[in-house]
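Researcher: Please generate the 3D structure of the following complex. Treat every line as part of one assembly.
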Amino acid sequence: MESYIHPYRILIAIDCIIFGFDGQKLKLLLIKRNFEPEKGNWSLMGGFLNDNEDLEVGAGRVLAELTGLENVYLEQLKTFGKSDRDPVERTVSVCFYSLINIEDHDSQLARSKNGHWFDLNDLPNLIFDHKEMVDLALKELQYKAALHPIGFELMPDLFSIPQLHKLYEAIYGHHIDRRNFSRKILSTGLLLDTGLKNENSSTKKAILYKLDKAKYSSQFNAFHYFMNI
Amino acid sequence: MESYIHPYRILIAIDCIIFGFDGQKLKLLLIKRNFEPEKGNWSLMGGFLNDNEDLEVGAGRVLAELTGLENVYLEQLKTFGKSDRDPVERTVSVCFYSLINIEDHDSQLARSKNGHWFDLNDLPNLIFDHKEMVDLALKELQYKAALHPIGFELMPDLFSIPQLHKLYEAIYGHHIDRRNFSRKILSTGLLLDTGLKNENSSTKKAILYKLDKAKYSSQFNAFHYFMNI
DNA sequence: TCAAAAGTGTTCAAGCTACACCCATGA
DNA sequence: TCATGGGTGTAGCTTGAACACTTTTGA
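Model: Done. Output below.
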């Protein structure tokens, strides 16, 4: 910082990449803009950073505005700052990504804000550089999920190992041996057998587990190589 | 982004964490501020983002102002945006970290800007939240260096395996078996034997290698588990 | 009773760990 | 000739990959 007599104060946007998992596919929550520019086109949920508002607080606010959720997994991804990225006025966007349990979010609120869930493999055109943001977020998710057990953030409170297996296949977009996967997950000791069985299954019912949250929190950073890609 | 009629335009700072390696210890390049606030105290090299200047370009400019170096390893780390992080005026800082070959930088230029290299284990007090930035950058370096072969960015053009070994021990701050390390490094196929020998060594002279830059570039992302921590 | 999904077991190869040993060099 | 640092080898264990088999359930 060279001097505080500096003329260039810039608009700071916050954009949120919101991941969800519906049991089969990895999903992204996008909004249809009802304001210019790019009115009627799809974009990430966003907002501007307010005066006296911490960056992370702003991101939480933007996320809650669309989903109603607070205290969910929310991480800073990257800041996008090409000088021409916004055609109206220069805007630097600090980008966050969030992993939510899709069952928990306020779907009425989301609809009221023109929110819509898209398959990650079937996204519409996005405004500005938002596609680039999404691509990076997916890479980061793949990266992180290989090192730390963050996949659980996308699951409902009760889940079976086959469900979790589907999630990881969705994240990485390729087949993962279910038997090796199962052993690996169970060996972490993060799952608690609830004694319940999955009722959805048409054939053999799968055991429902819940996450051992105390263990998850305390050992989160001890997992360096959670999953092989 | 809700509307472009938004009043809060904010100063955007760029701060650079500059890592170097002197053959023994991991180092950080800091500057002594000769301007207020915090005049006379140590800080990261920084500057403000200019109008019409891309973020990455700005970071490159800030780095070059102190080191004279261009086209070196420079990565965005995180954006720091607590509303009270700067006592004079709200400033959001986009933080970058850089790995440089300490031999290559313009030491006269650095000195002229009040730059000084510090041992990572023996840092002075830093202004604002710069200590937090440094701590995060080290964690990120440890993280990244475990997954990708970025350690080479800190080495001179010619280097021996024992030198590289010292670097990794400095990065992780603990002992690494030199024999296993050597085998692991050689097995990557990234090193080219130059036929030369290290002249510094007082006892047996070590083989000098250079990095196979073509292989390094093309296979960079193929290394997922470069090194066990 | 049969198909499909879920749980458990086994084998093999690769890679990592923890060592020991030998070689080259300058004092 | 000896201490020091550098290069190479090896045994054993762990881990992951690639498999097959059994069990449960609804149709």
